[in-house]
């Protein structure tokens, strides 16, 4: 049986070390998947806000969020959280508001929607 020295100085079987590493890797992967699902749900909700407020289709809503993210250097899920907060009555930060207006206007001028809901 092959032994591996642990950080505590206690030797243990190599197969157990591999199992521990595999379990740690699976836990990390599971955490990443949970975060991805939560982020996706937030983005979908923000797209729904844009759909309702600006009357743009879902694909244009995602494009708007992505464009805002790129222009403001704010992560997509954070932009989505900001848009959801805005729908719930929180103020929209100036930089995000300007980028949102410009992105929606570009989509509206392409015939994707009617711009601001009135």
Model description:
By secondary structure, this protein is mainly α. The chain is built from four helices and two strands; from the N terminus they run ββαααα. The protein has a two-stranded antiparallel sheet. The longest helix has 41 residues, at 14-54.
The helix tally amounts to 4
Low-confidence segments? 112-118
Mean pLDDT: 84
Radius of gyration: 23 Å
- By DSSP, the count of extended strands is 2
Structural class based on helices, strands and sheet pairing: mainly alpha
Shape: elongated
Side by side, the strands of the main sheet go 1-2
Fold topology:
Elements: E1 3-5, E2 11-13, H1 14-54, H2 58-72, H3 76-87, H4 94-109
Antiparallel strand pairs: 1-2
Helix pairs in contact: 1-2, 1-3, 2-3, 2-4
Which characteristics define this entry?
single chain, 118 residues, mainly alpha, 2 strands
């Amino acid at each position: 049986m092959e032994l591996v020295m642990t950080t505590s100085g206690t030797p243990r079987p190599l197969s157990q070390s591999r199992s521990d590493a595999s379990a740690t890797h699976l836990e990390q992967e599971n955490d990443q998947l949970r975060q991805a699902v939560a982020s996706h749900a937030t983005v979908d909700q923000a797209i729904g806000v844009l759909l309702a407020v600006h009357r743009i289709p879902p694909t244009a809503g995602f494009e708007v969020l992505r464009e805002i993210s790129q222009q403001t250097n704010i992560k997509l899920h954070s932009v989505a959280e900001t848009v959801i907060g805005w729908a719930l009555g929180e103020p929209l930060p100036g930089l995000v508001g300007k980028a949102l207006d410009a992105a929606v206007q570009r989509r509206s001028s392409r015939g994707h929607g009617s711009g601001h809901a009135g």
